[in-house]
Amino acid sequence: MLTGKQNVFDFRMHGLSSDLRGELTRSYGPDQAQRVAEPDSICTGVGARVDSKTSYEKTTFLSPDARRALASSRSSLPLLHHSSVSDRTIQCSRMSLAAESPLQSSSSSEDFAALLDAELELASSDTSPNEEEAENDDENDLQEPRTKRRKVEDFESLEDIETPMMVETNQEHIGTSGVVKNDICPPHPGFFKGLCMRCGQLEEDDGSGVAFGYIHKDLKLGTREIERLRGADHKKLLHEKKLVLILDLDHTLLNSTRLADISSEEEYLLRQVESMKDDPDRSLFKLDSMHMLTKLRPFVHNFLKEASSIFEMYVYTMAERSYAMEIVKLLDPGKVYFDSKVITQADCTQRHQKGLDVVLGAESIVVILDDTEAVWHRHKENLIQMERYHFFASSCRQFGFGAKSLSELMKDERESDGALATILNVLKQAHQMFFDPVLGPDSSSRDVRQVLKGIRHEILQGCKIVFSRVFPSKSPAQDQPIWKMAERLGATCCTEVDPSVTHVVSMDTGTQKSRWALQNEKFLVSPYWIEATNFLWQRQKEDDFPISNLRSRNA
């Protein structure tokens, strides 16, 4: 048995969310709301009780199942007990996540986490060491006029229902024989610590559902409940004129290195990080507990501040959670941008892959920023691939770059026109086009993936490109990544030159096609021109991407 403090959820006013406090105050008035919020007045589970002066109709801030449970306690209905469920977990799940109540209309994962903190507090608390004493106390309480909770009775032994108000409420769940029918599940909306949050049944090991451990430990939601939450989230965000932004960490917003991997040319950073430790505007940090240095990408704080006004933001990294949380403290010390929305390697449902199945946001409004395209195999249309931020030498070595790193060169990206500043403009453009007033007030059927596709396709519109010795001649040109990249940017690609060709992309000025470009005053550029255009979402100056190989060869 649970102790007196454990047999109810802690719904005191000071522990409630602002939304729930407001709902209580509107329903009861400020004085009565405080009393209703006390554990003696409002509980959860089938054995819950509403104060005798409290109107059943005024409990509309609770889910329908919870209202039935609250009302049923007024008729002294004993708790239901299934033999396969322990006393400790009886009916803690009767407040259904699936119910359509004001509490559950909020769709962000912070609100959802807050809801779960309230609804699941009983299930998540440890068993009291004084269980036997508490059980005796509960039995003694049965003799009191205002019983907090009846002792758990056998599943078959229901008392008659005498309260008129309860006849209709419980009719759908109680048969003529007096046996309660569990017709509210399946489907189960979700599970907490292996128990259904609605009916309390044990979870079957059938592999269904998706774990949302980053929202609440040991939480798993069913497919139907995920769809419901996504639908509510979609509606809420569109009303707020916001989209969803998924942010990778390493090489996208920052770069980290182990202290042991610092090169001799980077040792000045160790002195620098110590001298700057009290500077609120610093971008270099030493993570002592992890023996690492972390360099934030220029403009990252401004980026997060401006993006947060038009996006609900998640962190999604393949790193371990301990590292991710340390980094999030640097990016969002006030928990303004992410709060609980930090998804890490342990949350992924597929090995070496990231997926939106663990994001409570509709795919049609999700934009992803990540430096690695391969991990988003299922969601490439949502992806804006970022140019990798290689500040440390170890990062360059990791990806096989022979050039010196930014730290070794004592340089960095410019804040004004670096990667994050440039992509922020793209995000603002996508947001503006998605919510364009000309399209009308109803944005529910729009898809940000189509918006991104349209923006991208305009970048190289009007360019006709021929490739010369950029990829093996025997390989199908149309299957080459750089060919596909150019087409996504709006360019027309072909295999032979003609007067309509505007660009020749080559690695060698001596090929026949390269010479043709020079003779006919066409642009002759290296493949990096296309890659830079792709990363920066704007056509780059051709003169900045000359061909470095000057050897003459015949095509």
From TrEMBL:
Species assigned in the record: Musa troglodytarum
EC code: 3.1.3.16
Reaction equation(s) it catalyzes: O-phospho-L-seryl-[protein] + H2O = L-seryl-[protein] + phosphate; O-phospho-L-threonyl-[protein] + H2O = L-threonyl-[protein] + phosphate
Record keywords, A-Z: Hydrolase, Metal-binding, Nucleus, Repressor, RNA-binding, Transcription, Transcription regulation
Subunit and interaction comment: Interacts with RAP74.
GO CC list: nucleus
Protein name, entry field: RNA polymerase II C-terminal domain phosphatase-like
Location in the cell: Nucleus
BP-aspect Gene Ontology terms: response to salt stress
GO molecular function annotations of the record: metal ion binding; RNA binding; RNA polymerase II CTD heptapeptide repeat phosphatase activity
Residue ranges of domain BRCT in the record: 455-547
SMART domains assigned: CPDc (SM00577)
SUPFAM superfamilies named in the record: BRCT domain, HAD-like
Function: This promotes the activity of RNA polymerase II.
Ranges for domain FCP1 homology: 238-409
NCBIfam families hit by this protein: FCP1_euk
EC class name: hydrolase
Nucleus among keywords: yes
Composition bias, Acidic residues: 129-142
Gene3D superfamilies in alphabetical order: BRCT domain (3.40.50.10190), HAD superfamily/HAD-like (3.40.50.1000)
Segments of skewed composition (Basic and acidic residues): 143-153
Annotated segments matching region Disordered: 124-153
Essential cofactor(s): Mg(2+); Mn(2+)
Main location: nucleus
